[in-house]
Amino acid sequence: MTKWTEEAIEALRRLARSELTGKQIAEMLSEEFGAKFTKNAVLGKADRLGVKMFFRPGALPPAEPRVPKPRRDPKPKNHAKFVWGGRMTARPTLVVVPPPVEEIAIPESQRVTLEELRLGQCLWPLGDPASEDFRYCGGKCDSVVDSYCRGHRALAYVPIVRKKKPAWRAAG
User: Fold this and answer.
1) How far apart are CA 4 and CA 45, in angstroms?
2) What is the rounded (10 degree) CA torsion for 39, 45, 49, 53?
């Protein structure tokens, strides 16, 4: 570890104004003070002291601006399906349309605020949560562990439709 004295720091400041590299300054400080000064010790101390080192123009090549690589267009996906007979046919596009949401008529007397909500009441939100007239359904749930009344449960949970196995797979 390099021992930095006040004299060594003053010499570093003086030498930093000259056109010397960090390695040359380190060698000169080592000769002058009899201690081992490395290039990294000199540069680190200069940085901590806020001393600007003189860098010769042209010592480092100018940084070239990065040019982003042109993006390649992704290959078009082949959605064709082979059909016996040598023809390629495109797969039909599947459009999933959610079932229409039927609005359930909820009487104003049944609607509750968050503070009025109790266990076994429907948690279905009604309106904009940021507005003051935001309420919950508050209808009676079938059991205490249910979150929604029957009408809202039908809207919230869509039953899973399992596809039947083809006959040729079921036989094996």
Assistant:
1) 9
2) 0
pLDDT in tens, 62-89: 567 788 887 776 665 655 554 555 555 5
Q: What domain range is 29 assigned to?
A: 6-49
For residue 12, tell me if it sits in a domain.
yes
Residue 124 lies in a domain: yes
- Per the structure, the count of domains in the chain is 2
Tell me, rounded to whole angstroms, the distance of Cα 49 from its chain centroid. Answer: 38
pTM: 0.36
Helix/strand/coil for 90: strand
Pairing of strands 125-126, 87-90: unpaired
Structure-token match 């009441």, residue found: 121
Residue 140 inside a domain? The answer is yes
